[in-house]
Amino acid sequence: MESILVLTHVDESGAALSKGSLEAVTAGRELAAKLGAELAIGIVAQHATKAASQLVGAAKRVFAVQGDAFAQPRFASDAAACEALWRATEPAIVLAPHSSRFARVMAAVAYRVGGAIDTHVTAIAAAENIEATRWFYRQRIESAVTRDKRPWFLLLDAGTHAAFAPSSSSEASQLEEISITAPLPAIRTEVTGIRAPKQDAVTIRPEAKLLFVAGAGWTKKQPDGQIHTDEAGHLILGFLGATGASLGSSKSLVDQGGEGHSVLPFLTHLNQIGQTGATPRHPKGLSTCCHGEEPHVVGWRFIADRRAISLDPNCGWARGKADVVYIADAFQVIGKLNELLAAKG
Ligand SMILES: Cc1cc2nc3c(=O)[nH]c(=O)nc-3n(C[C@H](O)[C@H](O)[C@H](O)COP(=O)(O)OP(=O)(O)OC[C@H]3O[C@@H](n4cnc5c(N)ncnc54)[C@H](O)[C@@H]3O)c2cc1C
């Protein structure tokens, strides 16, 4: 028989369980009912007693790892806490909220206990097999995942289940405290405050007159047989600094960091333009080192004047998707443009 553990954590107040945690409790209870499985709940908090009072009637056994070390979200302490909670019951299925606090540790916890993990889960069905449903490509492809491997960790997206409300007719379960027997790894991280980047360090500028898009070509081998990622980064940042343009990217370029390829460190998926990215609105757009494929170009539908620089005369841009295509080396063109802009002051 499958056994289920729901891992929870407190919110910023430190006293109450986060809404996502209470949603995971509901999901755990529903799954346990479908499978006839045993359900336990684990809490990570500085003080867990008050949080546990929100779980009256939720499960027979409620565990907690608590103490000052667990007041703040931090990889070392949270991963150790979640691992200890798993080892207390060794469940086959672990449900947890896909919060920033748990998303950053749970893959490591699954790895430490020899399990598998799926993230962004929106629903869990249980008939012959347990089936976790999730979306890919921003709600374009829905997939139902089944796995034989156990333990199986499932991180649940927020808003997919009702938050659990304690029952007034049930008795509170005895809180079982788990102390971490092995010493905690050195705790080097302390949250002392939040500092947001300065406006001029932000590369996404919705009000800019120009959208500058970088494609994967910037990090590909160039005619000399070498890659020139550092030079590419320097040229792009120089251009953005001189023009105040907003920075977009193709999907290929932002994805390749995950594949261990050379990357431009200032780009994230938030810069991605296209079908599975953003569709910004700017009067002008300049694409560089990008092929201009349809899933990318569809993100340009609100850009009035479109220009592209590509080495490939047969690229998608050249086939009627840009108003002007420069068949040229973007390293040379942007280098020259930066020189002219610097001279202009
Ligand atoms: C369901 C789905 C959704 C997708 N959603 C998106 C999306 O939202 N956004 C997106 O961008 N893509 C999306 N894609 C991927 C898209 O189809 C393309 O694979 C991607 O846009 C290609 O990126 P790229 O042009 O940067 O890279 P490449 O195809 O590798 O092209 C690189 C280009 O750089 C040129 N180049 C190289 N060096 C130079 C140089 N020195 N000077 C000038 N040019 C040079 C090359 O000639 C080449 O044309 C999606 C795909 C699918 C299947």
Explain what this protein looks like in three dimensions.
With 345 residues, this protein is an alpha/beta fold. 26% of the residues lie in helices and 23% in strands. The protein contains 8 helices and 14 strands. The strands form 2 sheets. It has a 9-stranded mixed β-sheet, with helices on both faces. The chain has a 5-stranded parallel β-sheet with strand order 11-10-12-13-14. α3 crosses α4 and α5 packs parallel to α8. Flavin-adenine dinucleotide (FAD) binds next to α6, α7, β13 and α8.
Instruction: Catalogue the unreliable spans.
Output: none
The major beta sheet can be summarized as:
9 strands, mixed
| Mean model confidence by pLDDT | 92
Which ligands appear in the coordinates? flavin-adenine dinucleotide
- Tell me what portion of residues adopts beta-strand conformation: 15-25%
Overall body shape: elongated
Note the total helix count.
8
- For the secondary structure, the number of strands is 14
